[in-house]
Design goal:
Strand content: 15-25%
Shape: globular
Largest sheet: 7 strands, parallel
Structural class: alpha/beta
Order of helices and strands: EHEEHEHHEHEEHEEEHEEHEHEHH
Number of helices: 11
Radius of gyration: 20 Å
Distance between the termini: 54 Å
Helix content: 25-40%
């Protein structure tokens, strides 16, 4: 691995796969703002990053990892960040085979190419690899927690299984310089889509609730909303990435990030999904200047009714954040209400041109 990377080195080009996605768009902006690096970006969509397309430090390629020639080109850069994935819950049941191809076959090919070229591969995995946790599960430890996934008949686990196998594959490549990032429910502007407007299907819970609020519909609580999650601002996630970059740029500290998996989450932001719904109703009322009683309430639905046959879930997903703090000095800081207000404010403003906001 090249341990002489510097943030002010104009000769460095970082490959950012999935640069047009939710996390990728925020990381792309931060790289341009905080470093002198160039970026080779790959994605199938560029609507979130239109402002950067004319940047002379940016080369954008509309392609995906299914193309072997694209994979080989990506692996020629010293740092490769792979954010590309199918991570829409509704697709885990309906398109399990494609979800596995996207989250295992393609990243595996990229890992092989990076092992050959000597690139440092920073791979975004998921907190879902921890599997079917119980309501009383404690903090999840990167290198200790046991993992139990649901049965094969519950195709909801297609995503987690593929992501976990990819992690195991990376760890098995002797010549690969790798770092794994396990996100715990990142939220912020540009997250997901509004069904029927700029996407189809069912997005993740924050976009689900945001869509319902903007459309004046009830917020649907899958299986009563009892599951607990920790929500993390995407800005904290970007700060974590710069802690990773900084360690990788330091010849004396780079071993702290190589061959390591890191939870990235905010353990203080834990709520049940029902509590999240009520908090979002309150935040929405405040943003719109209306009484909370005027905001639609909640509705309980079954997981199979909402997502389809094969749905299953984790009841608690609480990250241990000690490793990131100990090795990288990183700790998420942005409180839940602030993160939700920013996300919902963006959602309202972004979709205000559509005739969906009834308030």
């Amino acid at each position: 691995m090249n341990a002489t990377l510097k943030f002010d080195d104009t000769s460095i080009t970082v490959a950012l796969v999935g640069c047009g996605g939710f996390i990728g768009s925020h990381l792309l902006r931060a790289i341009f703002e905080r470093t002198s690096w160039r970026v080779f970006g790959v994605d199938l969509d560029s609507y979130r990053i239109q402002e950067h397309l004319a940047n002379p430090r940016f080369e954008f390629l509309c392609a995906d990892l299914a193309d072997p020639t694209v994979v080989e080109r990506i692996a020629q850069f010293p740092v490769v960040v792979n954010l590309a994935a199918i991570c829409t819950p509704g697709r885990y049941m309906a398109e399990a085979a494609e979800v596995i191809r996207s989250n295992y076959d393609h990243p595996r090919a990229l890992a092989d190419a990076c092992a050959r070229s000597g690139s440092w591969l920073i791979h975004f995995s998921t907190s879902e690899i921890y599997g079917k946790t119980a309501a009383d599960s404690g903090a999840l430890l990167e290198d200790e927690s046991e993992i139990v996934l649901g049965p094969v008949s519950a195709s909801r686990w297609s995503y987690a299984t593929a992501k976990l196998l990819t992690e195991r594959y990376l760890a098995g490549l002797a010549d690969l310089n790798w770092t794994v990032v396990r996100p715990f429910n990142f939220v912020g502007p540009f997250m997901d889509f509004m069904p029927g407007v700029d996407g189809e299907g069912i997005p993740r819970v924050l976009a689900n609730f945001s869509t319902a609020l903007v459309r004046g519909e009830t917020l649907k609580l899958v299986n009563g909303g009892a599951a607990k999650r920790c929500f993390t601002s995407v800005h904290d996630a970007v700060d974590f990435m710069f802690c990773v970059f900084a360690a990788g740029c330091d010849s004396e500290r780079c071993e702290r990030v190589l061959s390591q998996a890191f939870n990235v989450g905010n353990a203080t932001n834990e709520v049940t999904v029902e509590e999240l719904a009520q908090l979002m109703r309150s935040v929405y009322a405040n943003l719109k200047g209306i009484p909370e009683c005027a905001v639609p309430g909640v509705e309980i639905v079954s997981g199979e009714e909402y997502y389809g046959k094969g749905y299953d879930d984790s009841l608690r997903r609480l990250p241990s954040v000690e490793k990131a703090e100990r090795l990288l000095g990183f700790k998420a800081k942005i409180p839940l209400k602030e993160a939700l207000a920013e996300s919902l404010r963006w959602f309202i403003n972004h979709y205000s041109t559509h005739e969906t906001d009834v308030c």
